[in-house]
Amino acid sequence: MIRSTVILGLGALLVAGCAAMPAGQGAFSQSGAVAGADALFPVARRGGELHANNGATGQPMGVGVCPREKDLTDYSALLPQSLAAFPPGPKPEYTKAPRDFGRAFNTDAYRVLLTQDMGRARRDIDALRAHAERDAWVPAVQSNSAASAVIEGMGSVLPAWQILRQTAVATPEDRTLIDGWLQRAAEYADTHPGENNAGTFRGANDMLWGAMSGDRARFRKGVEQGYMAQLRRMRPDGSFPLETDRGVKALENSSRNIALMVYSAQIGLSGGVDLYATEVDGKSLDDAISFLVRAADNNALVDVYAKDDRNPSPGTPPFRPDSQVSPFGNPSRGWIKLYTDRFPGTELSRALLAHVDLPARIQSDTVGGVVTCYASRI
């Protein structure tokens, strides 16, 4: 049985997404010109909070949680590869180019959120316009591998565009051109079967893009084919069949899937949809997290599935009992921060925090990029 929370909250989000937003001020004066200006987080308000002077230090309030200049990667060297990610040919192959460009670009946009540097914002918008004008990331031939690469790239670019499209230097022409390109990229990503964590990632992207564009159908598709599909597939013990059979990386893949579900839940919360509280046949996100913690402490719980050693990544050693790669590496810090901030002091949150230290700045592709910049209390 699926709780009614999703249906009721979905209506609230869609009304909010189509309603006119109050005009922003200063650097984010275009917030009133876009639908879904608060999807994931309220950009104009958050930017104002981060940029405000900290009387104790004389620095902006967000300095401790947002990217520093030294944290940025100059994406100018990554731009040509991203623009030419899928050269003409019979079948496009997977490439890290969209992911690598998107990651660097995302961090740059969060720097704009803090500094309100409109010169940087204009340069970032021009980089996206270059993609739109070339129709990058939209191959002519369908390929699941290429669609997977597009999903990864969009995961970082969408939150960045959510910031940049609301800046004072974003024009209506920018928004029309870039929005059209992102829609075409989303439609290409639709071709991926989306049964494992790639489908969860696509679902989160569809939720965010649907909220940003006012596309009710795409938002619903993201909820159903991403988050809800994973709850339906999840075993009663909280394990994911298409993640836990992956040999020594079974728990690492499970953690990635959980991260993308947490991210989806955060997108939902921004519009009144509480996916955290949603169950399917008595199964919830908490069950998946509980299994992850228990199996990390006792690998035997996952080894019964992991021994199938399906589709190991290049360079991954063969399955051996009690040899799981830790699911609490650096990429997990983003989702653990979001979850433990949402549910402070619970037994599950304490168990997670016993496994990982959370630094002041956290960047993770699976939760929208620089999670501390958009979510930390300041």
Q: What is the count of DSSP helices, taking H or I runs of 4+ residues? A: 16
Mean pLDDT, to the nearest integer, reads 94
The H/E string reads HHHHHHHHHHHHHHHEEH
CATH domain class name of the largest domain: Mainly Alpha
What is the percent of helical residues? 40-55%
CATH topology of the largest domain: Glycosyltransferase
Q: Based on DSSP secondary structure assignment, what is the total number of beta strands? A: 2
| Major sheet: arrangement of strands | 1-2
Q: What does the secondary structure layout of this molecule look like, with pairings?
A:
Blueprint (H helix, E strand, L loop, with lengths): L4 H14 L24 H9 L27 H5 L13 H19 L2 H17 L9 H21 L7 H18 L7 H17 L2 H18 L7 H4 L5 H20 L15 H13 L2 H7 L25 H11 L4 H7 L9 E2 L4 E2 H5 L3
Antiparallel strand pairs: 1-2
Helix pairs in contact: 4-5, 4-6, 5-7, 6-7, 6-8, 7-8, 8-9, 8-11, 9-11, 11-12, 11-14
InterPro entries: Alginate_lyase_dom, Chondroitin_lyas
GO molecular function: lyase activity
Protein name: Alginate lyase domain-containing protein
